[in-house]
Amino acid sequence: MDGHFVPNLTIGPDIVRAVRRATRRPLDVHLMVERPDQFVEPFIEAGADLVSVQVESPCDVKATLAAIRGAGRKAGLVFNPATPVSATEPFLDGVDLVLAMTVNPGFGGQKFMEHVLEKVRALASLRAARQLDFDIEVDGGVSEKTVGACAAAGANVMVSGVALFRAPDMAAAIAAMRKVCGG
Predict the structure, then answer these.
(1) Are 56 and 80 spatial neighbours (Cβ–Cβ below 8 Å)?
(2) Which CATH number applies to 13-180?
(3) What would the pLDDT profile of 50-61 be if each residue is shown by its tens digit?
């Protein structure tokens, strides 16, 4: 987050570089910045495995996604709750993941926006109709209460922050969410 695209500042390439030294797990970076095209290279050099950009970004989104893939990384596309699924359609052939934000990006602890589930269903239908193979991710307000509906709508990657970090036992909270999803 750059304080411009969303009104908050968070993790930069130096933190990603430090995390990369501590783990071999995949690092998924969501660039909530005004010009993601200017940040792709520093985050890839820092160790990001998947870099996602907002479809609403004022840059050449198609070229930015191609640059991510050209660097040998996975490319993700993100859309906000108010953005129609149709805005993602021109880019679906060039992505590994589409992230449907289920809150307005920028701050944790917001209420899950159930109307986004219809967009997840529409995205899953587009994926099937076009015979594409991208993951569908949801982020925002994902908890034991909402994760089942997300999975039923077609999401297969779930991001949960507040529900896990405020849980008395994070491992138990993750297990409960997996159980709700049938996993």
Answers:
(1) yes
(2) 3.20.20.70
(3) 999 999 999 999
